[in-house]
């Protein structure tokens, strides 16, 4: 059975975005200039290459995630192009209760129960799956115990208030530490495996 991997940037105090949804506190917030350390860029690219399907919320898809990375994949002189090419080529599954058809290439809609849909996707043949966000969608996946592996990119900033992703957890979410890597920019990547 293939795994569902979460990769998400967080502040030191555990927020995925500021209260207004912004990410200006992040070392890199998906702009044209990839300000991460080269080793962190390589890790990020290798992780997306290990998956062949990306799970997205309807909101994230409609906000332009798919189109943004398709555009980046075409910028051959941009160091993000290889990473972006993996996103472009991977199958995308957009979770929605409101859309009737997909408006994006290489994308299908999942309209049923979240847990049932994800469990069915895990049984398919192929590489692992990855989810990047958004916040409410990721929170629901975590609360349902559907994330198998967590790659938390901890930025060297505390923001005080914001949007958490672990706020729907009931009881204790047991995790086993797999790896910790610190980078010169101050970012630390914490890799955990779900122990539930």
TrEMBL record:
Bacterial bifunctional deaminase-reductase C-terminal domain sequence ranges: 2-189
Pfam families: RibD_C
Spans through the membrane: 129-147
InterPro entries: DHFR-like_dom_sf, RibDG_C, Riboflavin_Biosynth_HTPR
Sample GO molecular function, one term: 5-amino-6-(5-phosphoribosylamino)uracil reductase activity
Keywords tagged on the record: Membrane, Transmembrane, Transmembrane helix
A single BP term in Gene Ontology: riboflavin biosynthetic process
Protein known as: Dihydrofolate reductase family protein
């Amino acid at each position: 059975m293939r795994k569902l991997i979460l990769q998400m940037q967080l502040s030191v105090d555990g927020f995925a975005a500021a209260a207004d949804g912004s990410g200006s506190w992040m070392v890199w917030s998906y702009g044209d200039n990839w300000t991460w350390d080269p080793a962190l860029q390589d890790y990020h690219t290798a992780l997306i290459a290990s998956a062949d399907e990306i799970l997205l919320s309807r909101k994230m898809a409609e906000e332009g995630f798919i189109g943004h990375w398709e555009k980046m994949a075409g910028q051959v002189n941009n160091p993000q192009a290889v990473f972006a090419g993996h996103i472009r080529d991977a199958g995308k599954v957009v979770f929605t209760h409101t859309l009737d058809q997909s408006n994006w290439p290489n994308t299908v809609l999942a309209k049923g129960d979240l847990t049932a849909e994800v469990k069915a996707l895990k049984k398919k043949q192929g590489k692992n799956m990855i989810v990047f966000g958004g916040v409410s969608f990721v929170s629901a996946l975590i609360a349902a115990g559907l994330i198998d592996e967590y790659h938390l990119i901890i930025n060297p900033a505390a923001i005080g208030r914001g949007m958490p992703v672990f706020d729907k957890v009931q009881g204790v979410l047991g995790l086993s530490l797999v790896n910790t890597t610190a980078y010169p920019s101050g970012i630390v990547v914490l890799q955990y495996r779900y122990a539930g």
